[in-house]
Amino acid sequence: MAVKCKVVHCKPCTAKKVYEESVTVWANQYGFDFSPILSRAKAEFLARPLHNYELDPEDCLSQSAVLLDIDMSTFSRKNLEFISEKFEFVITKGGTFHGLCAWFSVDILVEYLQQIYQSM
């Protein structure tokens, strides 16, 4: 097995810059007041995840929390449907909470990397 451990992290964040570019920009667009559609623009912005968004560290509202820590040497696929985790954050910075930023880290076994290197 190449991967020993997978860890899913998440932290609350604000996306102020992209929010302003997507939502508040409608208040004055080329001199026209489109503010009646602000609620629709806001709903659409909040309904979808931001993929491939590079989060500015200034946008983080707290430290990250470990959502899931899986030891792949003992984990089986049938365990997937029974995963239930609790986590909490202490918000340490002011700002509008727009959502959670999530990412994962993976520990790759050195033996696996050595096999790949030797086969080259």
TrEMBL record:
Keywords in alphabetical order: Methyltransferase, S-adenosyl-L-methionine, Transferase
Gene Ontology molecular function: protein-arginine omega-N asymmetric methyltransferase activity
GO biological process: methylation
Gene3D superfamilies: Hnrnp arginine n-methyltransferase1 (2.70.160.11)
Entry EC number(s): 2.1.1.319
Domain spans labelled Protein arginine N-methyltransferase: 9-108
Name recorded for this polypeptide: Protein-arginine omega-N asymmetric methyltransferase
